[in-house]
Write a structure and sequence with these properties.
alpha/beta, Nucleotidyltransferase, domain 5, 6-stranded mixed beta sheet, 21% strand, globular
Length: 364
């Protein structure tokens, strides 16, 4: 599956806004911007190449709730679009100020679903100068897996990567080949995320039955994925690393570590004992909304959504009971940055672009 090409700024615009950095390697004037617009969040990373990876020079993240109500009405609301355009305008300003020369801006599940996505994308292009690319579920899964690759232990036989979004949850089943090589053996986009489950079952006050029904909604799809790939048997043999990338797992990690405010350095790459994580899930699921608001790493912005994320995590653990989970505060944006840098390298050396390692097989 081919990944669409990143947007390249015109020479005049890039030159007017460029800030120069000198760290060796490729052309030091190259500055990369990766923007991920999801159902709930708008996130930006701006980076320079550094060695085999990159160095972040600017970033932005805001909860915009673009998908608010879409599962009920089928359309993006005016208020949600206004909030999102404001955030995207900030992203555009940041990229202009640091002189981004290569950018990739993608939208995911909510824009795949909403009936008025085309009009919204046209408005973003006109008001912000950003061209959003609605990527497929397969490409979303592939980018998330690539962005998390540095946290994978290649001594295992397989890795299971999951990304709990606002409108969907992506699963990627990887075969690990050593020396940092992997192969996508299967993938699935579960049509439930924290926003869609919350709108379906509630988020302020959650009954025990509502929580159980959230898990049932997700379990049906998880069971299908398990039936295809036999992951549970590999877990029993100790051959699988599970890695989670999402606001849900990073929030659970922050709560587990008792952080007074979220600290990415403390969370990204951390290992969580899954029994302790499930205890937190159950505590949050049985607490009231006001108590969840008081959790420093949850707050008012996430207090109504975190329980549905807990239900997804618990449903996965019921089927795939790993003893520990690695937490990734990274994903699509990092995958996009690495992909753009790889393309620049290929162009510089006159190489043909490699085929993307996104799932060649049909989704599970």
């Amino acid at each position: 599956m081919a990944i669409s090409e990143p947007q390249k700024l015109g020479k005049g615009e890039a030159k007017r806004h460029r800030r120069r950095y000198h760290n060796g390697g490729e052309n030091s004037s190259n500055v990369y911007g990766a923007l991920d617009l999801g159902t709930n969040n708008c996130r930006l990373l701006v980076a320079k190449r550094q060695g085999r990876g990159f160095r972040v020079i600017d970033s932005f993240s805001r909860i915009v709730r673009l998908g608010e109500g879409v599962s009920l009405t089928g359309k993006l609301s005016d208020d949600a679009m206004d909030r999102t355009v404001e955030a995207l305008g900030i992203c555009a300003d940041k990229m202009r100020r640091v002189g981004v020369t290569h950018m990739r801006c993608v939208a995911t599940e909510v824009c795949r679903k909403a009936d008025n996505s085309a009009a919204f994308l046209a408005r973003v292009a006109e008001e912000c100068g950003i061209k959003l690319d609605i990527i497929t579920t397969a490409e979303e899964a592939a980018l998330a897996a690539e962005g998390c690759a540095p946290l994978i232990d290649y001594r295992h036989r397989n890795a299971l990567v999951f990304d709990i979004g606002g409108g969907s949850t992506e699963l990627v089943w990887l075969g690990l080949r050593g020396r940092r090589r992997s192969e996508v053996l299967g993938w699935m986009s579960i049509p439930y995320g924290v926003v869609t489950l919350t709108e379906r079952h509630g988020g302020m006050e959650i009954t025990e039955d509502a929580y159980a029904n959230m898990m049932l909604d997700v379990s049906e799809h998880i069971d299908d994925f398990e039936a295809t790939h036999g992951i549970a048997e590999q877990i029993r043999e100790g051959q699988v690393q599970m890695l989670g990338t999402s606001g849900t797992v990073t929030t659970l990690a922050g709560v587990h570590f008792g952080l007074e405010r979220y600290n990415r350095r403390r969370v990204d790459g951390a290992w969580l004992n899954t029994r302790a994580m499930l205890d937190i899930c159950r505590r949050l699921a049985t607490s009231d909304y006001a108590a969840r608001v008081l959790e420093p790493c949850i707050g008012e912005e996430r207090a109504d959504l975190v329980v549905s994320g807990c239900a997804i995590v618990e449903a996965m653990h019921n089927r795939w009971p790993v003893k520990k989970l690695r937490v990734a505060d990274r994903g699509l944006r990092e995958g996009m940055l690495l992909g753009m840098m790889r393309r620049v390298d290929n162009e510089r050396h006159g190489r043909q672009p490699a085929q993307n390692s996104a799932p060649a097989a049909r989704p599970s």
